[in-house]
Amino acid sequence: MKEEVNVGLLGLGVVGSAVAGALLEKEAMIAGRVGCPVRLRKVLVRHAGKERAVSPSMLTLDPSTVLDDPEIDIVVELMGGEKPAHDYLLRAIQKGKQVVTANKEVMAKFGPEIMDAASTMGVDVAFEASVGGGIPVVGPFRLDLLANNIQQITAIINGTTNYILSRMAKEGIDFDAALKAAQSRGYAEPDPRNDVEGIDAAYKLAILATLGFHARVRPEDIFTEGITKLTAQDFRYAAELGYTIKLLAIAREVDGQIEARVHPAFVPLDHTLASVNGVFNAVHILGDLVGPVMFYGRGAGPGPTSSAVVADIIDLAQRLHSGSVMRPPVPLEKTKRLRPVEDVESRYYLRLQVVNRPGVFAQITRVLGEAEISLASVIQKSETDSGRIAEVVLTTYEATEAAMRVALRALSALPVIEEVSNVIRVEDTSRPARN
Ligand SMILES: NC(=O)c1ccc[n+]([C@@H]2O[C@H](COP(=O)([O-])OP(=O)(O)OC[C@H]3O[C@@H](n4cnc5c(N)ncnc54)[C@H](OP(=O)(O)O)[C@@H]3O)[C@@H](O)[C@H]2O)c1
């Protein structure tokens, strides 16, 4: 039983500064909740000489000052990136320290190994802030939802892309203008690739799917497509058809296999996720006992993220104080396999530029029919090039990814198709599949 719990931070940036601030300002409240004082002792940074929110005596540039100090009970990793964060986490575990991290990249790539190493050492690793910032979602998976077989996770888990897509939907602007708006408000990095290409969302989905399905889902197992090809026209057609467009992270169990994908999708306007706008995130979970539950809130930012990190510190400190630290990880089921993306079924929206003459629809329908894809709706829109070219929008019933790839190749080869301008999946579980 500890009568005082000492904390070492690795990183004092956006999140680290907020965590340090909360630990210092809320010291009395935290001590009351834990039952003993929780003291911030040391903080690792990379650059000397920056103005910092903590006393200079706490700062160090040497990781061993935190990792090898026997007085430090909890190491909190808030540096980000794979290296050296991954090595430092393992070193802290080997030294018998409890660990808290907000690092989605490391937990997505190495989470199960890290949990195993912690289990061997009889310590715990808490990572609530690695997905959804301040939204409680890791905790519910590790505890409250354990009685369920999880059927599906559908999430909006990247605030940058959700902000961009919300602006595009609301203002009819194109991707580049919406990205600039996000950058000018500090919601997108100067190099936004990790967010707009869906990589960040795939890291978070790997963590959620591994927790939810008790099966190893790696970031590279996740089919990932970003939002850069979306245009103002796609949003106009989506609205006309009763949808909006969101970057969805979806994982579900189908025939004993795990399907995991991140891509833009048409979402019906009456679906709960359609009203998650701006930088907000939401994780919608379907469990066999609980039914649908949704967690909603701010998925990033110093306040929400420090809320999750400090809660993890309080939880570990309570357990250190009471002498019952270990919460063994739920073993992973080794038999569950990842579903190949070619087998994934979805409805589709296609926007095509076609030569404006009779018989074109018959050719399109024939190509889709040969790939066993049925049309659900067709809209012919604005003519361009003095009426020579027409824009055509189709939606299909459920088709496999493999069938759609075959159909797209055949469509692109038709002389009457000038261009396949966009292809977007339609996530519409409320409507019946083709029979
Ligand atoms: N920002 C958010 O809203 C948010 C939300 C959820 C999760 N997260 C996660 O939280 C973590 C931290 O994010 P952040 O936004 O706070 O990052 P950040 O502002 O870039 O801060 C990183 C901190 O780590 C230190 N650092 C980086 N590499 C280091 C190294 N090799 N050795 C020593 N110190 C090093 C930096 O030191 P210097 O100060 O000396 O440069 C800085 O203090 C990341 O894993 C991120 O994914 C962030």
> How many domains, as an integer?
3
Question: What is the terminal separation in angstroms?
Answer: 63 Å
How much β-strand is present in the residues?
25-35%
DSSP, total strands: 18
The CATH homology group name of the largest domain: Dihydrodipicolinate Reductase, domain 2
The name of the CATH architecture of the largest domain is 2-Layer Sandwich
Helix content: 25-40%
What is the level 1 CATH name of the largest domain? Alpha Beta
Quick one: overall form?
elongated
Output mean pLDDT: 94
CATH topology of the largest domain: Dihydrodipicolinate Reductase, domain 2
List bound small molecules. Answer: NADP nicotinamide-adenine-dinucleotide phosphate
- Radius of gyration, in Å, reads 24 Å
Going by helix content, strand content and strand pairing, the class is alpha/beta
Helix count, DSSP H or I runs of 4 or more residues = 14
Major sheet summary line: 12 strands, mixed
Low-confidence stretches: 430-435
Describe it:
This protein is of the alpha/beta class and 435 residues long. The protein has three domains: 5-134 and 302-322, 3-Layer(aba) Sandwich (Rossmann fold), CATH 3.40.50; 143-296, Dihydrodipicolinate Reductase, domain 2 (2-Layer Sandwich), CATH 3.30.360.10; 341-426, ACT domain (Alpha-Beta Plaits, 2-Layer Sandwich), CATH 3.30.70.260. It is 35% helix and 27% strand. It has helices at residues 14-25, 27-34, 64-67, 85-94, 104-121, 138-142, 159-171, 175-184, 193-196, 199-213, 232-240, 302-322, 360-370, 401-413, and strands at 5-10, 38-44, 59-60, 74-77, 98-101, 125-126, 150-156, 223-224, 243-254, 257-268, 280-287, 291-298, 337-338, 345-355, 375-384, 389-396, 399-400, 417-426. The strands form two sheets. Strands 7, 8, 9, 10, 11, 12, 13, 14, 15, 16, 17 and 18 form a twelve-stranded mixed sheet that branches. A six-stranded parallel sheet has the order 3-2-1-4-5-6, with helices on both faces. Helix 1 (14-25) crosses helix 12 (302-322) and helix 5 runs parallel beside helix 10 (199-213). The longest helix is centred in the C-terminal third of the chain and has 21 residues, at 302-322. The termini are far apart. 44% of the residues are buried. The structure holds NADP nicotinamide-adenine-dinucleotide phosphate (NAP). Residues 11-16, 44-47, 50, 78-80, 84, 102-104, 129, 133, 300-301, 305 line the site of NADP nicotinamide-adenine-dinucleotide phosphate.
